[in-house]
Amino acid sequence: MELSSVVARLDEELRTADYADLDASANGLQVGPEDRDLERVAFAVDGVRETIDRAVEADADLLVVHHGLSWGGFDRVTGRTYDRIAPLIENDLALYVSHLPLDGHQQLGNAAGVADLLGLEDRAPFGELGPEYVGQRGTAADPYAPDGLRDRLATNLETGGQPVRHLDFGPDEIEDVAIVTGSGVDWLDEAVAAGADALVTGEGKGKVYHEAREAGIHVFLAGHYATETFGVRSLQDLVSEWSLETTYLDVPTGL
């Protein structure tokens, strides 16, 4: 299959263009010519030297990641940036990136994957960002005890051996759960306004402790990497249906 066809299919499925003015990431094809054939596609959360080198070792033609190389463009292609771009070009390895579009996708996205894990029902988009969303909200079929929800996350996420942090300020039973993966505590007020019992995200900021305590809501910090493996894995499943060989490169950070 031609690279241009794969890029077009992914852009259409992820509605890449709709996030163009909302995301600092240059989503879509970041590195590579559109005119080439693909046989093998690698998937990873982060476009970094380790995943690029491992994609080269796997003889991949395309690497699909959530966190890419370009965040508002490059001033210079030197240092770390050069060290990441050079092996892509030297090995004719293309790089496709989907940041916020993959967060916000209501079936394939990161928040949707966490919602699947927690068995949430009656789901709706959550995490407003302009006219789009970067998360999801739903109701637990059976209410969780706070420790039970934490244990569910800890047991099933790739946390790199790190614990799931829990700010235990909400009700004794958790039914309504809001999810924004990665760095999502900025949507705490939206979760409170929506009546959520808990916000599940990846990493926190110092202010969230007191904000959650004052609002009476649980916050679960399950790791930036750990909460954002779902989207690229879902894309891997999708691309596998296109008669392409795929591989997933797991490089957990514990953060």
UniProtKB/TrEMBL annotation:
One Gene Ontology cellular component annotation?
cytoplasm
- Please tell me whether the keyword Lipoprotein is annotated for this protein: no
Which keywords does this Swiss-Prot/TrEMBL entry list? Metal-binding
Q: Which InterPro entries match?
A: DUF34/NIF3 (IPR002678), DUF34/NIF3_sf (IPR036069)
Spell out the molecular function terms from Gene Ontology.
metal ion binding
Residue positions binding a divalent metal cation: 66-67, 103, 224, 228
The record's comment on protein family reads:
Belongs to the GTP cyclohydrolase I type 2/NIF3 family.
Q: Can you say what this protein is called?
A: Nif3-like dinuclear metal center hexameric protein
